[in-house]
Design brief:
single chain, 180 residues, mainly alpha, 6 helices, 0% strand
Length: 180
Amino acid sequence: MTSDTADGLRARISRQSEDALGRLAQELLESPFVSGALSRAFEAREKAAQAQEVAMGALNLPSAGDLERLTRRVRSVSQRLEGVEDALDRIDERVGTMGGGTGSLEQRLNAIELQLSALAAQLADVAGHLATPAAPAVPDAPSPAAVAEAAARVAPAERRPSRTRAAAARKRAATRRPSA
């Protein structure tokens, strides 16, 4: 046999075997017995997976899905952490170029502390001036009207007439000043 006839024979046998396997698979899938067995096998597989998940949960062991979610979460946190590190590096570079080092920053802080201590001393002086009492004023002799009013308050027989509601309202209105 030549190689051309061998290749042709091989191709024809291959084609025929593919066709035969296709027909066999089609007949198997159309068979109610085989399709029922396959569906029962898939249901059993699903039940076994659920039972395995329950058993692992009872033993407090993570499932493959739990591990995958945890892995994704760790990757996400890692990426965020890298972003924070990059931002800190940029801030560090900016601070380094702005201040020219920590020496100038310490000088500025010392100047601020000096100003604060000067302000504290000034506040203490003001508080001292406010705390000293003023010279007591000499009380004047009470006026005769004040003496009479005090006597009227003390004497039980003499009572001032009580104000009516209208008089009280007029007095309140007179004490209030309209806002401009």
